[in-house]
Q: What sequence folds into this?
């Protein structure tokens, strides 16, 4: 077999792994911390609370921090003059499935120093709670609500934590978790039946009726979802 | 023909006074208390289906008279969980989901997504591909802003700009169609390149557009910029300071109208944006009028970028020359054994990614559009694909912007934020 015919097939087997690409479960070497001023400073100041540091995708710095001290660390990152991450572009979460911890991810950007940093916190599945960063950045209001809605993570101290994309009384769980089946918890027949039987008043949320004394006029029926999920085993089906 | 007789039940005849006018019968007693107009707040509901909400958006407003006290936006009517769907698709199969989010500027979303995946995988696209993507993204910035311009002008009562801007949009639709075969659902990008090379004569079509578009824009400008009605409806409405805007996460024209000059193309450049000669327009007052001015100037700057990009568009291949990433040509597939194997592997398995995560942002027409992709070792599907939606974050500031304004101003503020509900609800 000639070399030319071997190389093409081998290439397929090898995948597109880049030489020396960082793996999220392998820490970046300690000297890489000095490539990013904030990472080095974080290690110096919060040594014990910084769990891991990675360099991903060609130079994006990711810092894993202790969720119990996340608010303290993020406050410092926003306020310290050397760093000043005044913009929190995104708050989201990642569920890797198989019982592994759910990660909350903050994308920070400093408009002063033109520098980006990603902060991640690993939350074990039995304690999906973290401090809200609403006091720091008002823009995370809906982003945290979305994570709460789709992942079921509670943000302590968020003033208005309720579902945002799903109906406010949705009781089937958290759609973006890996244990949630792609087609929902119920069969198509059951979903249709529920849709046809629902009460249109259900779409009004109680808070809206506080003003004008309308809350007495519309009584919200109790929502009762107790039926066993009969599509629960089809999680892998697409 | 039958005749119908209608009988009126007539009560007693009113008594006539000396002047021939009816004398009102005395209603006793007269001590009805004056209603206390300040005490009661009213709850009104705008949407979800209303032309002024620019999509399926529901705004529940608490009003004191005609003044907005509080706005509670309700979203999620278009929620189809694209991010969940993406986890069940290979990297390339996610592309069609991206243009269904912002259907007003679909190519920006196509390009932003593959850019992030390529960064994650460490793929460097060809020079021709880079410039092509810049062209497509700038073209769709104009495309998105034109829709905003037309619909917002209608909201303040100016109908003509709508006709002008939609005529120009139609020309971009034609360019979309000539290249991708679709007007809205373009799905033009692939990991490592584009779905096809630009068709012959396409760049000439774009040049023709660029030659005449600035004239139309100037005409719309003359209709709105100095119009007393437009100024009266927009100046001083929905004001936010630069510091607050950054704190609220506003991006795009909404942020730049406040005077903050954050633009992803300048601050985190991609695709050699630092080598293009263009200005980032910023406003001063952070009101609806400045947002309008910023978007108008952005369209002119996009025209300048497009001219430069067309000049430097190099020849050469569009896709990366790597059989593990790019599909071989159909001819090769049918005649060459190895190409057929590569084709089969790519279609059935997809492209394996290295372990890690990548967030990459582009300046979309609505603001900073971030694509965050997470992969496990060798996974051909994303573990998590997250879109940082610019108009989702922009809309969340509407309560802050609309407080204390009139209901009619709320409509203007909502329009000036330039939202697209397909992307907010995802």
A:
């Amino acid at each position: 077999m000639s070399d030319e015919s071997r190389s093409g097939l081998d290439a397929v087997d090898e995948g597109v792994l880049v030489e020396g690409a960082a793996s999220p479960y392998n820490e970046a070497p300690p000297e890489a911390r000095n490539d990013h001023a904030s990472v080095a400073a974080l290690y110096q100041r919060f040594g014990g609370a910084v769990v891991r540091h990675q360099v991903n995708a060609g130079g994006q710095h990711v810092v894993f921090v202790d969720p119990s001290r996340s608010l303290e660390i993020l406050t410092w990152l926003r306020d310290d003059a050397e760093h000043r991450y005044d913009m929190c572009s995104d708050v989201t979460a990642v569920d890797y499935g198989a019982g592994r911890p759910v990660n909350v991810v903050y994308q920070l950007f400093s408009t002063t120093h033109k520098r980006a940093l990603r902060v991640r916190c690993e939350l074990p599945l039995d304690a999906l709670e973290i401090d809200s960063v609403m006091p720091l950045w008002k823009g995370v209001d809906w982003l945290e609500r979305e994570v709460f809605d789709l992942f079921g993570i509670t943000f302590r101290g968020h003033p208005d934590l309720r579902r945002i994309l799903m109906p406010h009384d949705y009781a089937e769980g958290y759609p973006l978790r890996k244990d949630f089946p792609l087609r929902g918890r119920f069969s198509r027949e059951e979903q249709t039946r529920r849709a046809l039987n629902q009460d249109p008043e259900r779409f009004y949320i109680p808070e809206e009726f506080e003003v004008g004394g309308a809350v007495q006029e519309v009584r919200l029926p109790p929502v009762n979802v107790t039926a066993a999920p009969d599509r629960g085993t089809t999680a892998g089906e697409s | 023909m039958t005749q119908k007789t209608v009988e009126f039940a007539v009560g007693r005849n009113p008594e006539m006074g000396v002047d021939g006018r009816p004398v009102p019968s005395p209603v006793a007693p007269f001590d009805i208390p004056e209603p206390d107009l300040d005490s009661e707040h009213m709850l009104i509901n705008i949407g979800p289906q209303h032309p002024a909400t620019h999509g399926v958006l529901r705004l529940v407003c608490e009003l004191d008279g005609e003044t907005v006290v509080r706005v509670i936006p309700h979203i999620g009517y278009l929620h189809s969980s694209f991010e969940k769907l993406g986890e069940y698709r290979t990297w390339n199969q996610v592309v069609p989901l991206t243009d269904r989010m912002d259907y007003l500027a679909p190519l920006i979303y196509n390009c932003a997504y593959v850019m992030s995946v390529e960064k994650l995988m460490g793929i460097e696209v060809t020079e021709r591909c880079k410039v092509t993507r810049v062209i497509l993204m700038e073209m769709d910035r104009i495309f998105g802003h034109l829709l905003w311009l037309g619909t917002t002008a209608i909201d303040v009562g100016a109908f003509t700009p709508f006709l002008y801007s939609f005529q120009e949009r139609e020309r971009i639709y034609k360019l979309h169609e000539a290249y991708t075969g679709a007007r809205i659902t373009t799905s033009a990008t692939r990991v490592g390149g584009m779905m096809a090379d630009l068709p012959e004569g396409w760049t000439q079509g774009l040049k023709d557009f660029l030659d005449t578009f600035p004239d139309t824009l100037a005409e719309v400008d003359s209709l709105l910029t100095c119009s007393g009605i437009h100024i009266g409806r927009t100046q001083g409405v929905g004001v936010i300071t630069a510091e607050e805007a950054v704190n609220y996460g506003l991006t795009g024209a909404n942020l730049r109208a406040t005077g903050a000059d954050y633009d992803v193309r300048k601050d985190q450049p991609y695709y050699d944006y630092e080598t293009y000669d263009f200005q980032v327009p910023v406003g001063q007052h952070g009101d609806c009028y400045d947002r309008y001015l910023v978007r108008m100037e952005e369209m002119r700057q996009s025209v300048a970028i497009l001219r430069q990009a067309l000049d430097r568009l190099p020849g050469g291949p569009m896709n990366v020359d790597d059989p593990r990433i790019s599909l071989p040509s159909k001819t090769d597939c049918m005649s060459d054994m190895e190409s057929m194997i590569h084709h089969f592997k790519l279609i059935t398995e997809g492209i394996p990614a290295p372990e890690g995560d990548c967030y990459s942002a582009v300046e979309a027409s609505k603001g900073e559009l971030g694509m965050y992709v997470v992969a496990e070792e060798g996974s051909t599907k994303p573990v998590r694909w997250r879109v940082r939606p610019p108009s989702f974050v922009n809309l969340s500031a509407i309560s802050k912007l609309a407080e204390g304004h009139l209901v009619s101003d709320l409509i203007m503020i909502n329009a000036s934020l330039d939202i697209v509900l397909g992307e907010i609800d995802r």
The CA atoms of residues 117 and 373 of chain B lie 7 Å apart.
